[in-house]
Amino acid sequence: MKREFAVIGLGRFGGSICRELSEEGMDVLAIDTDEDKVNEFKDIASHAVIADATDENALKELGIRNIDHVIVAIGDNIHASILATLILKELGTKTLTVKAQNDYHEKVLNKIGADHVVHPERDMGRRIAHNIISNNILDYIELSDDHSVVEVKAGSKMRGKSLIDLDIRAQYGCNVVAIKRNRDIIVSPRATENIKESDVLIVIGADIDISRFEKHLVVEED
Ligand code: ATP
């Protein structure tokens, strides 16, 4: 089923959202004040129009009220991003995702009712930092300030052992929610599942518990 989206601000971030949604067959209205940007997206999005998102009438004329999900990806101009968010909220946008430029911007956006506030540079920076710190952590998604989901290489300490043998939940307070094995993904693995050295475990838990789990079971001794 096609769902309607609008992406406001066609910089690198908004532009890539617009491209992906369009490639997935979604109906996307692409909006920017910059004519060159709009031209770039003419053949990618369903509609691409020049408009200023801080102009309430312009948004109304575009029928933004009928669009389920609006993504505000205006970067540097924090004032415009906040104003556009306020207007869209007042116009009754069902779901509003907004890119924040810094922590204060994020706070304001949450206060004025943005449904999802994303902070791509900060989040990607954190993910990369985690990957750099630990060779074993392949990916990291922050769920809250103190909980995450990580992908870790199983390694030799877990080889041939089952989840029961390792007793990860009781010992470390975290859960293995899936195992990636070659091209397969075993979702909610059975407790008796034997782990292979080359497996990648997807683990959810408090950061402090994941860190203990990683130190004891994942890090290889030299
Ligand atoms: P990125 O890192 O994603 O490239 P950025 O932080 O550099 O983003 P900007 O270039 O500041 O972001 O803004 C993204 C886009 O938003 C630009 O193409 C800009 O023309 C557009 N934009 C800025 N203000 C408005 C506005 N009021 N209405 C619509 N589009 C706007």
UniProtKB/TrEMBL annotation:
Any one GO molecular function term: monoatomic cation transmembrane transporter activity
One Pfam family from the record: TrkA_N
Domain called RCK N-terminal: residue spans: 2-118
Segments passing through the bilayer: none
Classification via SUPFAM superfamilies: NAD(P)-binding Rossmann-fold domains, TrkA C-terminal domain-like
Annotated RCK C-terminal domain residues: 135-219
GO biological process: potassium ion transport
Name by which UniProt lists this protein: Potassium transporter Trk
Annotated source species: Salimicrobium jeotgali
